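debug: dumping io for the single-chain case to check the tokenizer round-trip. Nothing else runs in this session.
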Amino acid sequence: MPKRAKKKAALTKQISYLNDKEQADLNRAETKLRRKLNSINNRRLGLNRKESVALRRLQGALGFDISKLKQQLSSLIQAESNEISNILQVRQDQFVTGYLSRRQIIDASIPGIGYKLKMRLQAAGIHTAADITHYNVTSVEGIGRNKGSAVVSWRDSLTTQAKMLMPTSLSPSEIGGIKQKYEIRKRQLENQRDDVQRRLASREREIRHQYAVKRKPLDAEQVTAQNTSDQESQSIRNKYAQEYASISQRLAQLATEAQTESQKIDEEISKLRKQIFDCHWQTAKIRRDIKPYKNLTFRHYIRFVLLGHRTSN
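debug: decoded output
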């Protein structure tokens, strides 16, 4: 292998070696950064866990109080609604009962129930629609299942009419009176709930701020570690860039030398080609010059020489 080719191969091998070495140095810097960041993240996670525990404890204390107050408030609201509904139900039942009580059996028009059976029903204590049950009606002599069903159907039709006419709500004054009875207690519970919620929110802000302050140095440490690692990596690259530049310069010099030598060789080849051309030209000229003597033998030559010599004497 020519000397220059050996130098080029050695320099190329050196570049590959430097590349591997640079990558190894960069990997070590990256590993160092990862270890540092992992340490910071672990400490940050520790703070986060402590913050979560503190918030859960706070929620377990004040949050439980809030939940209890909300439950009491909900129960109070439900009790208020139940009281309104119960009073309305009593009023409606009273209305239906009164409506049925005013409908006399003796005046009713019931299929199969004549005057005689009506008197028997009254004798059994069944005077109005409000007194009718299936059992007490069918217990009266002369009233079987069919006639008993007719009496019950008459009562049911009156019940339907009564429900269509009965009140569907309490008066505003009645509702206002019931609500007023619960209002003071509701307001007390709402004030207690709001107070505990404010204390909970305030305490949560304190805890979050406390741990945010503790995390701040970690954030700064992370930024510093990242910047330091970036500077170290850049320093490594700059260091090897100089060595790469030196080798590249030597390779360029070898290339220049090779190009110069190649040009010289090309010039020499050109000269040799010209010399070869001249030789070919001279050879062709000589061949042309000796062509007339192509058929001359040695005998003819001697004779020519002798005769020519004598002639000159």
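debug: round-trip ok. The longest helix spans residues 172-289.
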